[in-house]
């Protein structure tokens, strides 16, 4: 190995256990003479190991062979050299021998050994990887399941056979659905669901090339599912057909009674089918053999099962544990546990609680019959017509139980298990119209009246019932009278019958029909009495027995809600009484009071005519008609105040629709 006399040579620090940043390399400066050999003495210093000794087994011979190997090579021919400069802080010129410490000789050997081992491992792994690909070529990847069936590592043919054997029987069976708290079954054939066997096998896939995937497949499984032939429209239709069973409104927790026994009703969230999402879930999972979770929209409830149970155990069971005695004025009432149960009301509270409160109306309903002898019904003063003249029927003050004051003491008593008695308080209810007030109202003469006739027998029944209800009604000064408010609901329970009405411009039938004739008669009576109109509506088309522009209709639905009303306001300081006179062919209404006004009315001629249209009707009882033109009229009322002599006029324009030309057709079904 040649050596350059003006160069420095150093060995890297190597220790027995590898490299270390803390180890120190010993540097020995050497003075070199050009006439001497370039290498130091062949004899190693006893305290400084030679390179051969420090690096056994890494390409250097051992023993004498090493010594021979380490002999210096003859130096090259001397060449003129520049003046040497100091090479280190010792001030010595020439090369420096760097000698390794005892622990600085092993890292190169360990790194080489590690590289050899790593190469061997990689080679072995590559051999196994190639062998694995060769052996499993053409098979389904390891760990693959299809609809829960393990086909990993099988040939495609064997995998298809296994799938047909295990999945095939499922395909004709109903598909179990789980929709929230409801279960149902779906007919796959009706929903148009079929399995695509070829696509399902293809979905299982081929061997992966990734070494990582191949290794992990020994320890994991992968579900790929089936491929389905499906018509989303059919699947959607089949799910929609199940909606009545799957959907339900939220059910708040409450307590019901079976006789006197209280039973908790658990709360349930409301749910509605999410059809589009449900189609995807069914198509993806119908052949899995497990119930398919159907996506739903949920409406949460406020109560919880725990809140209901607490109300049941801590309040209700004690409330109905025995009877309660209610002590009245001279008479007592005893409520049984079953009756007590009907007086309790339940409503959601904070934090999922179920609040229990007493129901005032129900308490009065079960208590009043037993205490009716201690109660006196109040009555307002009335005007009765005897001998054709108004007479005041005296008022009666009422005495009734004070339900607002009695409610809480009653509920407190229900919370006791003994001493279950409670004293009820009473209150006096003075008449709204006293006898004295009625006598001072100045109801002494007729101030307005009107009559109509020509009604059908069924309409006549309803007119008689409403006339009996209104007869004698008093309208106090500045007070407004509403027909619907005064009569209340007009159904069969109140004595009304089915009679003719006009509905959407077409004759029809309804309970309470014919009351519009009473309303028209009332309108004209207060029209001529000088009362202030507080609201009314004309019929959609003109009925020949009524004055043009001076008629009215009314309507209430089956629940007793006022939809079309008629009302007037008494503008004077004197009162008004309503008298009704009914016969089988006519109705007359008179308003009594103090006559302060003279009234006249005039109606214009018809203008803006419109022609009738045909309308085909297929309802039973249809009556054909030729129809009639529509038109508009203007009615003008002139009112002269007798007290001041001043007059004023009021005009109202009414537009009547044409009456349809009715063509009757057979109703559905003949």
TrEMBL record:
Region listing for Disordered, in residue ranges: 1-101, 603-656
Positions with biased composition (Basic and acidic residues): 638-655
One Pfam assignment: VanW
Source organism superkingdom: Bacteria
Domain YoaR-like putative peptidoglycan binding: 351-421
Biased amino acid composition, Polar residues: 19-28, 603-612
The protein's name in its UniProt record: Vancomycin resistance protein YoaR, contains peptidoglycan-binding and VanW domains
Species this protein is from: Lentzea albida
């Amino acid at each position: 190995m040649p050596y350059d006399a003006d160069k420095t040579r150093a060995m890297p620090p190597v220790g027995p256990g590898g490299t270390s940043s803390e180890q120190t390399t010993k540097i020995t400066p050497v003075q070199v003479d050009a006439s001497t050999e370039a290498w130091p003495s062949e004899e190693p210093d006893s305290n400084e190991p030679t390179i051969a000794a420090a690096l056994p087994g890494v390409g250097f011979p051992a023993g004498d062979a090493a010594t021979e190997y380490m002999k210096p090579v003859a130096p090259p021919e001397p060449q003129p050299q520049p003046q040497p400069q100091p090479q280190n802080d010792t001030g010595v010129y020439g090369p420096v021998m760097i000698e390794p410490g005892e622990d600085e000789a092993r890292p190169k050997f360990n790194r080489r050994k590690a590289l050899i081992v790593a190469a061997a491992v990689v080679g072995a792994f590559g051999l196994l990887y190639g062998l694995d690909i060769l052996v499993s070529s053409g098979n389904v990847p390891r760990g693959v399941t299809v609809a829960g069936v393990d086909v990993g590592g099988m040939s495609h043919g064997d995998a298809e056979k296994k799938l047909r054997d295990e999945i095939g029987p499922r395909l004709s069976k109903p598909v179990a659905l789980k929709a929230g708290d409801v279960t149902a079954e779906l007919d796959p054939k009706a929903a148009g669901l079929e399995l695509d066997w070829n696509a399902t096998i293809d979905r299982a896939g081929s061997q992966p090339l990734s070494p990582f995937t191949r290794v992990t497949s020994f320890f994991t499984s992968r579900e790929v599912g089936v491929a389905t032939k499906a018509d989303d429209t059919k699947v959607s239709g089949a799910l929609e057909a199940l909606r009545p069973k799957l959907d339900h409104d939220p059910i708040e927790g409450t307590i019901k009674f079976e006789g006197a026994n209280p039973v908790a009703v658990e709360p349930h969230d409301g749910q509605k089918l999410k059809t589009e999402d449900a189609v995807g879930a069914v198509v993806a999972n119908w052949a899995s053999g497990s119930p398919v979770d159907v996506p739903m929209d949920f409406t949460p409830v406020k109560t919880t099962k725990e809140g209901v149970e607490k109300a049941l155990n801590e309040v209700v069971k004690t409330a109905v544990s025995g009877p309660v005695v209610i002590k009245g004025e001279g008479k007592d009432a005893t409520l049984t546990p079953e009756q007590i149960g009907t007086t309790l009301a339940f409503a959601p509270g904070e934090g999922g609680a179920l609040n229990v409160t007493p129901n005032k109306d129900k308490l009065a309903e079960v208590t009043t019959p037993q205490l009716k002898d201690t109660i006196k019904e109040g009555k307002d003063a009335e005007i009765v017509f005897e001998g054709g003249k108004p007479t005041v029927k005296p008022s009666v003050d009422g005495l009734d139980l004070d339900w607002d004051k009695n409610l809480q003491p009653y509920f407190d008593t229900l919370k006791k298990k003994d001493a279950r008695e409670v004293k009820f308080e009473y209150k006096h209810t003075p008449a709204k119209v006293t006898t004295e007030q009625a006598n001072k109202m100045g109801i002494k003469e007729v101030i307005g009246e009107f009559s109509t006739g020509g009604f059908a027998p069924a309409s006549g029944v309803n007119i008689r019932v409403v006339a009996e209800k209104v007869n004698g009604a008093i309208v106090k000064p500045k007070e407004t009278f509403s027909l619907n408010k005064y009569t209340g609901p007009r159904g069969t329970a109140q004595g009304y019958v089915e009679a003719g009405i006009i509905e959407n411009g077409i004759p029809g039938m309804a309970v309470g029909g014919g009351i519009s004739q009473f309303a028209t008669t009332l309108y004209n009576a207060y029209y001529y009495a000088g009362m202030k109109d507080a609201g009314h509506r004309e019929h959609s088309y003109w009925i020949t027995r009524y004055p043009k522009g001076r008629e009215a209709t009314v309507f209430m639905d089956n629940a007793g809600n006022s939809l079309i009303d008629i009302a007037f306001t008494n503008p004077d300081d004197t009162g008004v009484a309503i008298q009704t006179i009914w016969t089988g062919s006519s109705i007359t209404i008179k308003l009594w009071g103090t006559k302060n006004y003279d009234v006249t009315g005039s109606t214009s001629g018809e203008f803006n005519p419109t022609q009738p249209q045909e309308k085909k009707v297929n309802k039973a009882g249809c009556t054909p008609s030729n129809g009639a033109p529509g038109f508009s009229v203007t009615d003008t009322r002139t009112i002269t105040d007798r007290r001041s002599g001043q007059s004023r006029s009021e005009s109202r324009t009414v537009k009547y629709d044409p009456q349809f030309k009715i063509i009757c057709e057979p109703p559905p079904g003949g």
